Amino acid sequence: MLNRYPLWKYLLILVVLVVGLIYSLPNLFPADPAIQLSSAQGETLELRQIQRVESALEENGIAVKASEQENGQWLIRLRNDEDQLNARDIAAEQLDGEATVALNLAEATPGWLQAFSASPMTLGLDLRGGVHFLLEVDMDAALTQRLEVNASAMRELLRSERIRYRNTDVEGRTLSIDFASSEDRDSARRLISRDFPNFDFTSEGSDRSSRLVMTLSDQTVNEIQDYAINQNLTTLRNRVNELGVAEPMVQRQGPNQIVVELPGIQDTVAAKRIVGATANLEFRLEARNDTPTAETETHVFRNDSARSAELMRDVIITGDSVSSASNSFDENGRPQVNINLDGTGGTLMNRATRTNIGRNMAVLFIEHKSEDTVVTDPETGEETIEREPYVERGLISLATIQSALGNSFRITGLDSPTEAAELALLLRSGSLAAPIYFVQERTIGPSLGAENIERGLLSVQIGLLLVVLFMLVRYKVFGIFANVALALNLTLLVAVMSMLGATLTLPGIAGIVLTLGMAVDANVLIFERIREELRNGLSIQQAIHAGYERAFTSIVDANITTLLVAVILFSIGTGPVKGFAVTLSIGILTSMFTALMVTRAMVNLTYGSKPVKKLWI
């Protein structure tokens, strides 16, 4: 019979709508503004400290909603967004360096919804707040690092061929080696040029002042700089993923800059410490007493500057050879980092340790930093900031090699569990190919994000109201069907985005507004087709059936073309464009379901198999 669905279709529609309702409900419970308290020493804060903070907040008129402890950190939920910054300052003053205080947003989804693994949509930087960093890659340091690696390999090559040399110097894009005779220099040139073809070679001086000068070619310099920026992009993405940030943005800007946006992160200091860390490790052997001074370096211990050790300049492996790392505790309860090396790193470590059993091996921690100095032009009085980069090196441990090491071993001598966790994170995510410096940093507070959300919701409400009024005036009873389907479409759209973990941004809200307008297009096509069939003399039941059947092809064609455009936008776009494409794509799919199935089910239940004298359409 015409205009009747089998029972399974009604049940399918009902199940989809119920599931959509459950997974869209968490969005009615926005995250609470909160301050996060964690011990500066990596230990759990005591309850009396939290109570002292709560009392201070209440004395200053700041309402506390709840306090809870999770993963060794305390979270104090507040009732008003406007109190968050003030609460952070009060808590920091009360604890006076005993803890790190950061802004946070605490999830407020009820427990019964969490039992279904339901959670609200992830909000983007412009809605939730967060941090924005503009980083600059030090290209000169990238060249220096590559030259130092080449210098170490060249020294090993010369020693293996028993060619005597004295000093190796790195300056700019040039590496030079001094020799005791012209014969040694010429032999070294033939040997090195075979294995290092990316240099332009020049011989200078003669006899005891012989020198071989090697300059990187322009093509090689460009390749090193491109590698540095791309490797840093990969490393930063890995670090951001380790932080657990949803839908971050890490992308290149210009020849030597990188933009990083971290939605939901309010603790700028912690984010900078992880994102901007340029730390790396070097594993070196301790120098023997008879080692020439030109082949050794003196380094002090990080946690005891009074202690130092003479190390070989040659590096066994660096942190780049680490394939995985995790932090734990040793048998004495002290923090340690467990390291696994890749195949090449394991081979180099085994080769170096099996021939040096009984000798000490050091773990050297290297960190690139910079110091900004304000310089005033004596003529114009204009102030400019000059960045002076510097490198800090310190020994983490110096241990005796008891047996040949392989792909797995551990590092001890760390100050705290927090330091061990951060070092493991940096090693897992990879080291930076070149130092990076913060050119710009901007924090978008939750209050600004709340204002954006309010405006976005207002735009959705206005768009929804206009569409509802138009459909009611134009199509009467059928307009009611279309409006109910429109509300269900919005519910399903929010539910699918929540289930997929998609990020909602302001452009995404624009996509939702556009979806609301497009969602009724299918109903307009169907309803106009029903009117046309009625004018052609068909009965009411036949006109309804023909309207849905004959409009189906047009609806599918129109929506597929729009969906293809959305997919293209998502594949080639970045940031805001992707947010718009995601909501548009999901909205197209949900609107086709509600227009073709949900409204048809309502029409069938209302008019199907019933004698109808007049159709209000």
UniProtKB/TrEMBL annotation:
Annotated ranges, domain SecDF P1 head subdomain: 304-434
Protein translocase subunit SecDF P1 domain sequence ranges: 229-286
Residues that span the membrane, as ranges: 456-473, 480-502, 508-530, 551-573, 579-603
Subunit structure: Forms a complex with SecF. Part of the essential Sec protein translocation apparatus which comprises SecA, SecYEG and auxiliary proteins SecDF-YajC and YidC.
Free-text function comment from the UniProt entry: Part of the Sec protein translocase complex. Interacts with the SecYEG preprotein conducting channel. SecDF uses the proton motive force (PMF) to complete protein translocation after the ATP-dependent function of SecA.
Organism of this sequence: Vreelandella songnenensis
Residues of the SecD export protein N-terminal TM domain: 2-103
GO molecular function list: protein-transporting ATPase activity
Family under the similarity heading: Belongs to the SecD/SecF family. SecD subfamily.
Subcellular location: Cell membrane
Domain of life: Bacteria
Domain Protein export membrane protein SecD/SecF C-terminal, chain residue ranges per copy: 439-603
Tagged with keyword Transmembrane helix: yes
UniProt xrefs under SUPFAM superfamilies: Multidrug efflux transporter AcrB transmembrane domain
UniProt cross-references to InterPro entries, sorted A to Z: SecD, SecD-TM, SecD/SecF_arch_bac, SecD/SecF_CS, SecD_1st, SecD_SecF_C, SecD_SecF_C_bact, SecDF_P1_head
Keywords from the named record: Cell membrane, Membrane, Protein transport, Translocation, Transmembrane, Transmembrane helix, Transport
Name of the protein in its database record: Protein translocase subunit SecD
GO cellular component, as recorded: plasma membrane
Membrane topology (UniProt): Multi-pass membrane protein
GO biological process, one term: protein targeting
